[in-house]
Amino acid sequence: MPTQPRTSREVRLAALPEGLPRPEHFTVARIPAPAPGPGQALVRNRFFQVFPALRTLIGGGVPGAPMPPLRPGDPLFGAAIGEVLSAPDGSGLRPGDLVHHWQGWREYAAVDATACAPVGDSLPDPVARLGQGHTAYSALAHAARTRPGDTVFVTGAAGAVGSLTGQIARLLGAARVIGSTGSTAKADRLTAELGYDAAVIRGTDPIAAQLAEAAPDGIDVLVDNVGGDQLQAAVTAARTGARFALVGTLARQLSPDETGTTAPVELDTFQLIVKQITLRGVTGASGTDQEWIERFGGWLRSGSVTFPHVRVPGIDRAPQALHELISGRHLGAVVVEV
């Protein structure tokens, strides 16, 4: 049996920020190690995901959303991969197993055994469980019903969702895939590595003008991680019968002048009606569905899909990793290696 820990570290919200959170708004606290209760497993976390929606939770959350708001003193949470140290009898878990759960941002966690999903060997790298491929696939295949020959526009294409969306759109038969991003360097990687035919860059020419040039015949599918003027541009570029999958609202979530809890945008309703555009929201998918995992694993092993991500070593660097994510420093998912 592994030695039972006496202490653990966890990242806590120290103070509510004015504007975007920075590393000084968090603290890494050392606390007594958690003692698992009835039906719980003790897990030593090895990796956890850093995700931009934490800004919304820090800002007070959104009514009806599945994740609660964060208040000063609360530990952060999120998707994690950890090693089971002890597990209740009959749970099917054994010491040494790797499991996926939602008590990240800490070294050790007492997790209900029913909330632990065994990782297994379906993926060539267990960290890929912390990617957003399932969300990208759900947006493309289910919400937007992507068909062979479609022209697809992905906003926030260099993020955790977008960096996989272009690749998966290709596998679903999209004829042309266009992504938006914030820098020329990222745009070059989108087109060279991640399945995109063209990229539009915010902060240069108007997005609508760039999109009109990249997709002169219009778009059939939108996977929107950003909202704001990029969603407006997509409505202008939409063909009749276009299908929009709304995944995120980064334009407002990561604005220093907003709380990150609302995302108003003005759309021309006449265009929605005349073009028969459908809009469907997509909530974050956990990626623990075994059918999806097997498909994703096959794509990764064959080289059909890559998993762009950055690994940040050490829990002490987690607050800085969140700041870098919000600042747009990285491409793909951001994962802390505990």
TrEMBL record:
Domain of life (superkingdom): Bacteria
CDD domains noted in UniProt: PGDH
Keyword annotations: Oxidoreductase
Keyword tRNA processing annotated: no
Record domain Enoyl reductase (ER): where: 19-336
Cleaved signal peptide residues: none
Keyword Ribonucleoprotein annotated: no
Coiled-coil regions listed in the entry: none
PANTHER family (UniProt xref): PROSTAGLANDIN REDUCTASE (PTHR43205), PROSTAGLANDIN REDUCTASE 1 (PTHR43205:SF7)
Identification of the protein by name: MDR family NADP-dependent oxidoreductase
